[in-house]
């Protein structure tokens, strides 16, 4: 007979493994909140849909302090104001408590609303290692009607990269000359290192011909295009989670530790700017993300 008070060794080991896993999953949700990979409202929705999920079992105080700019004393004031006990978990909130928390979040950190605007000039940006290049390559292969802009860069080609196809690899003097002659629609120094810019002429030609153009550029470039072409549609590509983004960056193995740290810092900053974009697309599956981006074209 099984004694509920004293479960056999194997059960206890399995239970503690499960507890460790659950804690890890909750820590992952907290990182997603801190880095803004998910909105707090989305986590609240997940908690309601499944109270036993990582979101559902997250304690409300932990949820609050994971949000940007909320410390412990602010957290305590919020809990008191909303009438929520600090032992409550997100999935265990009453209807009224959930509504007041939701209202509080909407007032302070509203979720970005998609602007229903299609355009023939699509700009795709997103944090480093989110897979912009892969999604862009997929679109290039499956949507030949869309022109993928080829940027100029001062960085050296990586193995397998072809000049004129992946980038125009140019030296500093050439890049300076391109800026001076107004050849670039936008340009920026990315990751504090190399310069990248979008040649204007091929884009204007394609747009004149009625084609759709896709730019895969960094955040600074996206902002410049917004200034230069107000009707451009800006798409922000999101990772399924912060941990997945870190995994992709490490897995790529093309950068050393210092460069990886620099890129992760940039990624955090970039994620914080997603509200400037018209659309957000989660890159969990490359083909699906590519389909969603391509569907934004006229
Ligand atoms: P990579 O060196 O890995 O090919 O690209 C580094 C970053 O440069 C990526 O985030 C990419 O989006 C960005 N990038 C590539 N081309 C351009 C461009 O023409 N303009 C700007 N602003 N960023 C670019």
Describe this structure in words.
This protein is α/β, with parallel strands linked by helices and 298 residues long. The chain has twelve helices and nine strands. The protein has a five-stranded parallel beta sheet, with helices on both faces. A four-stranded mixed beta sheet has the order 4-3-6-5. Helix 3 (60-66) crosses helix 4 (72-82). It starts with 8 loop residues before the first helix and ends with a helix. The mean pLDDT is 92. It binds guanosine-5'-monophosphate. Guanosine-5'-monophosphate (5GP) binds at residues 128, 132, 151, 155, 186, 188, 190, 196-198, 216-218, 220-221.
Largest sheet: 5 strands, parallel
Kindly provide the radius of gyration, computed on alpha-carbon positions and rounded to a whole number of angstroms. 23 Å
Kindly report the average pLDDT value. Answer: 92
Shape: elongated
Helix proportion range: 40-55%
First-last Cα distance: 68 Å
Number of strands: 9
User: What structural class results from the helix and strand content?
Assistant: alpha/beta
What ligands are attached or bound here?
Answer: guanosine-5'-monophosphate
Low-confidence stretches: none
Gist?
It is built from 12 helices and 9 strands. By secondary structure, the chain is an alpha/beta fold.
Which features does this protein show?
12 helices, elongated, binds guanosine-5'-monophosphate, alpha/beta, 298 residues, 48% helix, four-stranded mixed β-sheet, five-stranded parallel β-sheet, single chain
Write the layout of secondary structure elements.
Blueprint: H1 9-34, H2 40-49, H3 60-66, H4 72-82, H5 95-108, E1 121-125, H6 132-142, E2 146-148, E3 151-153, E4 167-169, H7 172-180, E5 184-190, E6 194-199, H8 200-208, E7 212-216, H9 219-228, E8 233-238, H10 242-252, H11 257-271, E9 279-282, H12 286-294
Parallel strand pairs: 1-7, 1-8, 2-7, 3-4, 8-9
Antiparallel strand pairs: 3-6, 5-6
The structure holds guanosine-5'-monophosphate.
Guanosine-5'-monophosphate binds near residues 188, 198 and 217.
């Amino acid at each position: 007979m099984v004694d509920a008070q004293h479960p056999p060794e194997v059960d206890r080991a399995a239970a503690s493994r499960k507890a460790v896993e659950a804690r890890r999953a909750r820590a992952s949700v907290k990182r997603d909140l801190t880095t803004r990979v998910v909105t707090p409202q989305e986590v609240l929705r997940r908690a309601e849909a499944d109270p036993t999920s990582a979101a559902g079992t997250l304690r409300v105080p932990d949820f609050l302090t994971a949000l940007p700019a909320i410390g412990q004393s602010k957290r305590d004031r919020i809990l008191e104001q909303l009438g929520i006990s600090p032992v409550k978990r997100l999935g265990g909130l009453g209807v009224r408590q959930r509504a007041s928390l939701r209202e509080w979040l909407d007032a302070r950190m509203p979720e970005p609303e998609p602007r229903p605007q299609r355009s023939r000039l699509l700009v795709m940006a997103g944090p480093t290692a989110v897979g912009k290049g892969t999604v862009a390559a997929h679109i290039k292969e499956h949507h030949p009607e869309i022109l993928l802009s080829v940027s100029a860069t001062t960085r050296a080609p990586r193995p397998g990269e072809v000049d004129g196809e992946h980038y125009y690899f140019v030296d500093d003097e050439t890049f300076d000359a391109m800026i001076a002659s107004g050849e670039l629609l936008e340009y920026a120094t990315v990751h504090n290192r190399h310069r990248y810019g979008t040649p204007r002429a091929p884009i204007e030609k394609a747009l004149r011909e009625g084609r759709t153009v896709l730019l895969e550029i960094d955040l600074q470039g996206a902002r410049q295009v917004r200034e230069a072409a107000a009707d451009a549609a800006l798409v922000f590509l999101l990772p399924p989670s912060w941990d997945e983004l870190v995994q992709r960056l490490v897995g790529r193995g093309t950068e050393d530790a210092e460069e990886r740290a620099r890129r992760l810092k940039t990624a955090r900053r970039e994620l914080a700017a997603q509200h400037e974009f018209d659309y957000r697309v989660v890159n969990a599956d490359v083909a699906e993300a590519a389909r969603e981006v391509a569907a934004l074209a006229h």
